[in-house]
Structures are given as C-alpha cells and as structure tokens.
Fold Large ribosomal subunit protein uL3m.
Amino acid sequence: MLRLWKLAEKSPLAASVRRIHSSSTNLASSQPSASATPASSPKWTPNSIRTGVIARKRGMTVLWTDQGARIPVTVLQLENCQVTANIKTVRRNHTEYHAVQVGATDRPVKTESNQMLGHFNKARVPPKRIVREFPVTPDAHVPVGTKLSAIHFVPGQFVDVVANGIGKGFAGGMKRWGFHGLAASHGVSISHRSSGSTGQHQDPGRVFPGKKMPGRLGGKRITTQNLAVVRVDTTLDLVFVRGAVPGFDDAHVLIRDAKKKMLALSSHNQAKGLYEKVLPTGVDDLPFPAGTAQLAKTLPSIIESPAYRRSPFIPQE
C-alpha cells in the first residue's frame, strides 16, 4: 500500500503550490528547448493559457470531509502523456495561433502508420494511441518530449473535462428529450409514448429544422465545466475531480484549466487590477508552463485540497 500524505494544518496548500511553482521554473530553465519553442515566461500570469493533458477515466469513487460529508469524485489517470510538437501558425489576418500537441497511451510500433511513426520519431517519443492539441499563449510552449504529470493541476483549482458521451443508439422522444408522452387513459390508441404532432397545416407545410424528434442519442462531444480538483496522486498520476465527467470507463478525456473560472475571469479582472481573484482561494500559483514528471518526484505522493480533507475516523496508511 502506498503511504498517504496529508498537508499539515500549519502548512496550507499555498505553500505547497509555491514550492511547485519554484521547482517548475527551475526545471523549465534547465530543460533544452526545441528550435520551434519560444522562450517560456518564468511565471504564470492571469492572461496565460497553459496546455491541457490527456487522461483516461478510471471510474468514480467517494471521499469524505472532516465533517463526514460524502463527496463523489471521478478518478482520471495520465498514461505516459508527453508533448509531441509545438505549433505556431500565422492566420490570414496576421494573428498568430499557438498550440501544444500532446500524445498519450503508448501503442505497439507495428500498429502505427508510417506517417505517424515518422512524426513520433522526430519528437523522440514512443507511438501514441491518441494525439490532441491545446491552444496556448505564446509564453506557454513546452519542450518537445516533456512528460506531463498529474501535478500539472493543483488541488483547489477548477478544470474542464472534454470527452465523447456514451452513445445510446436510436431513442424516442420521451427518452431523448424528456417528453411526458400522451395520455395513458381513454382516447389514446397505441400512442402512449408518441411525440404527437410535429408539423403544421398547409402553411408552412413543413417541419422546421431543429424540431425535437426521435433520433440518435448520445455519442457527442461534451464539455463538463468548472470541476474542482480534490486530490492529486503524484505516484500513480491520478487526478480526482469532484462530480461526473463524460465518457465510459477507460475512455480518453481531455483536461484543461477551467475557462470560465480562470480565463474569462482573468480578462474581466485585468481591467480592475484584481489579479488576486483569478485563482481560487488557497491557490497562489500554478506550475508553469507545465507540471512535469521530474517535478512530481520532489512532492508528496498524495496532495489534497484543504476543503476536502479525509475524515479522521477513516484509517490512514
């Protein structure tokens, strides 16, 4: 069993976050930067947009607070998540697009295409099953080959999780849209779960686009926003987020900093100069430009948010 570490009452999460930031800054300066990678900013700013990570949904469990409150959490695990490329393009309107390409979950060489093998060999990383890119600001590029860790996200912050929802096949109007159906008493003949009338008379004589009708349910890209990070396991690369996330168990999901809680809030507070209200309470800074595997080795195996400490009557290892 892994030894569980808890943050002491006299050393709040902010001190741990500051140590995370200082360690990540030293690591970023010591890592060799690629030719296409611009110089990274030494400190995260409210206008900075970091890269996200690719994880796998392992399932749901529960945690308890000191008051005994039961909190449902989803366990997300990083599987050899590495940076495969840094992207910089100039649009027609002369604006720049910056992104970090990330790959996760190693796959056998014989199952990969020659084109992608050449791409991975250039980045000096093993073949990956999934590759995605995350838009970033020019100061948030990460050296190619960097292995990202669960410490990329700090307990107490908010994240957005993107994945494909579970497909449920063809469904009727009641299951797909929540219609209550027709009357189940006299006057209705074999139409209790029917959607009823879907059109009009001769004018306009058609069904308008977007009409809620039976059809394919689920299987679409879903973004669940503003999920709180409750716990981070640096040894197993686990991220515990409060609530449910889309996708089935073992599905790949994308995790990134919450846009509404951080990015949109930073743009609003920038005019007022209220930078201290951009990050949640108890979080002073974030690992910038990324939380690496080398940084995770310098931290405790378990880091929890002070608001979601485990209950004292639960046995500790």
The first helix runs from residue 13 to 30. The CA atoms of residues 67 and 311 lie 7 Å apart. The chain has one domain: 13-32+42-166+222-308.
